[in-house]
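Reopening closed ticket. The problem is back. First fold of the pair:
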Amino acid sequence: MVAVENTPDTHNLVVCTLCSCYPWPVLGLPPVWYKSAPYRSRAVIDPRGVLADFGVTLPAETKIRVWDSTAETRYLVIPMRPAGTEGWDEDALADLVTRDSMIGAGIARQPGTLGSGDAR
């Protein structure tokens, strides 16, 4: 397993172009779209468009790096810490992290938005 960190300059997106390698033990069952051929091909060809489909709009200057998982190497994204969470403990921060944010198809929830968004 390799962890890659989102920063203000770089957003990471995980895909498996050959099949659907996914870190099941960590994230649970993969979403149906993760295995779909359209996601797998568009994530490489048009990652910014894929992110927009998921409601993630990044500044034009933010580089998007696509990581292609394999049977030997699985990637997880460490999402950026949301503003206003300085001093929060690990458990409180973990509540903001979602499955989608850990594969880069989403970002961490903002404080005050718990209960909305995807499954963790």
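Second fold of the pair, where the issue appears:
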Amino acid sequence: MIGALGLMRERRFLPLFVTQFLGAFNDNLFKNAMIFFATYQIFNSVEDETRFSAIATGIFILPFFLFSALAGQLADTYDKAKIMRIIKAAEVLIMLVGAAGIFLKSLELMLVALVGMGIHSTFFGPIKYAILPQHLKQDDVLGGTGMVEAGTYIAILFGTIAGGVISPHAAAFAVVGVAILGWFASLQIPPAPPLTKLKLDYNIFRASYRLIYGTMHIRRLYLAIIAISVFWTIAAVLGVLFPPLVKNVFHAQKDVASVFLGIFSVGIAIGSVIINRMLKGHVSARYAVPSVLAMAAFVVDFYFAAKFWPVNSGPLLKTVHFIALPAAWHIVFDLAMIAITGGMFVVPLYAFLTTTVEKSQTARTVAANNIVNSGFMVVGSVGIFGITQIPGVSVEDAIWVVFLLCLASAWCAWRLYKAGDVPRTRDAHIPG
């Protein structure tokens, strides 16, 4: 067993890590530059801001729902490294459209690029997890998964901060440059030849139905996927709420929203590393229930900190003035702990997905998970917008939705653990 950090010296892991890191950075640099541009320069009401944030989140997620089944089939049928290179080359073209949208200040072009990045991530996602058990030994898969998750969220941090602080023109050049670097990194990923040959089903609706049905009838996979999906619904809801919360509740500028998203990203990365150390490479949900219940407790504390926030007038606070407030450190601590416990909850479940089924089926398993995840996240994004439109329900009141979702995650994780969460060696089989 190689330590998680030791994997960074291995060619079978490092190029993949760099490629996915740059992709996650670019996603969030572009998405957050667009959302903050709209929130602070175009819209002037909490309703419009929340609506656009929800729309942008939903548009990015929709391709996961539509194309994940095809992405999983392709990843299990062809060399995963070659597919990655094609995907990263497409990212360069997508970001050229996004850059044009930034220069022209065209939300329409930006949304087109956001859809393109959603499609890019849809096809990349199954591969980045499915390639791990093919390149790594089984007792290194949890560590590799943890490093991928940690790297993803550190990249989200940098991308989020960059999206909030650099100028629009700088963002336009950056997204194209990072896409090119990601393509170069993908050229170094070792071959990952297919372990099976499938007849591709290009009917995305039929393929999605068959894939979900073929995966979800396996009880342990069903419970793991539902638990992961509820967790990502929490992340989607928080992503929708953060910009209007920062501006209208915490009375702060967009750079503080970047700090919030950054804290959440770093926290999940820290949680990923902590749980890998605690489990010592053994894939298990034994800590999932206490992790997500602790998360629920910090969500409640975050709600009360927001409800009784002391500043509600005067100019919007810059980061330096925000963190100078004693109450701000209470907010920062709660956000960090929500994210850390969230990372401890979700990372073993991803490792569980890739170690329960045969290696030839891992991409389709992750793809099925992505379809269900995306469905939950779209419902969560639209639902939280609807809830904030109810008379008398404030943005901070909507935080209670996150608390309820934490309890739902805990229930799923408890059922998984009670069902016997230690995977028998790749005994689950997905039809087709």
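Update: turned out to be a display glitch only; the data is intact. The CA atoms of residues 9 and 15 lie 10 Å apart. Residues 46-77 form the longest helix (32 residues). Please close again.
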